[in-house]
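new request in #modeling-help
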Amino acid sequence: MREALDLLRDRPLVVLTGAGLSTDSGIPDYRGPGSPARMPMTYQEFVSGPDARQRYWARSHLGWGRMRRADPNAGHHALVRVHPDLLITQNVDGLHERAGSPRLVALHGRIADVICLGCRATSPRQALQQRLTELNPGFAERHAAVEVRPDGDVELDETAGFVVPDCRECGGILKPDVVFFGENVPAPRVERCYAAVDALAERGGALLVAGSSLTVMSGFRFVRRAAKAGTPVVIVNRGATRGDELATYTVDAGCSEFLGLLADQQTAPMPSR
Ligand SMILES: [Zn+2]
């Protein structure tokens, strides 16, 4: 861990975070060690018909209430002090925003936003939550004890009868404004991240991955890009990751602990560019 911290000291940084960062906020990492193998709903399944959407929104209705109650943890707060050039997160929980991180790309969107697949209008998830509560009285109370996943989904099999509203404007299908499996990250988002990673090579910077197993290509590609340019990569994660062979250092530690140490040694303001 010492070598990794020394390498990162006073360098321009791009930080990529994943579900492992939010576990200390009580949001379980479904790919972490000891987690059961579970598949989130794919985009194709979501648009396949009303049954899938009923299942999705019923579960989300329960998961949302709990995700909303989660607070940023020491790792989120430390990253504000680390002050990276760009913070890229695969998490949709909005906790970096709540902690106050500027220069943030929510790669997979935010579970707090809803988009209409018909007119593309976006709206707050909280407004939809009120409609779901009105349309499904007592549902949340009857299922108060189920388990939450990082995407705000929950384990639940009895969703028959759950009423799913459509877009108020056009009657279109409402979808959380997050990138599902089987869906691409919007290109401008990806380009902004690539640009920040590419800039590290010219400025002697480093890429730090915190709390991601890099299973999905949407995040792993930035590690490949950095490594190809000769930019040092440090990966902090509980358990092995797909990027380990490309990393200068891998640290098997908790994110909160490592990021706290990193922030402490980086209290001097970064020189301006
Ligand atoms: Zn619409």
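bot summary: The chain has a mean pLDDT of 89.
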